[in-house]
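Amino Acid Chain and Its Fold in Token Form
===========================================
What this section holds: a protein sequence and its matching fold, both as plain text.
Structure line: whole-number tokens from a learned vocabulary of local backbone shapes, matched to residues.
Purpose: to set a sequence beside its fold so the mapping can be learned.
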Amino acid sequence: QWSYLIDEDKIEFQEGIFFRKTVLIPIVRIQHIEFKQGPINRFLKLADVEINTASGTNKIPNIELCRAEEISRYLNNKVKEKVEAEKLGQDLEVDEKILSEKEDDNV
């Protein structure tokens, strides 16, 4: 038994029948996404989506080509959004720190 779920903030992998294993990957932890097809998958119009993080690789295997492309595109966009949001948040923190330093200098 194997399944995956992708939502706004994370990817969840579950496997096993008697002993279940669950892996949660926060979107912000994704380093890169690979889209792979061997000769048999190419013939069957299937592909694998590999999700790489600092701690390892997880794979969504043998899914329809159009679905694999859709997942890849979605995850790439989500990663970009999260990185930009984090960067914006850091920029705001730096701006607030600069403003508070200026206020301290004025006092």
Observations:
- The chain has a mean pLDDT of 85.
- The chain has two helices and six strands.
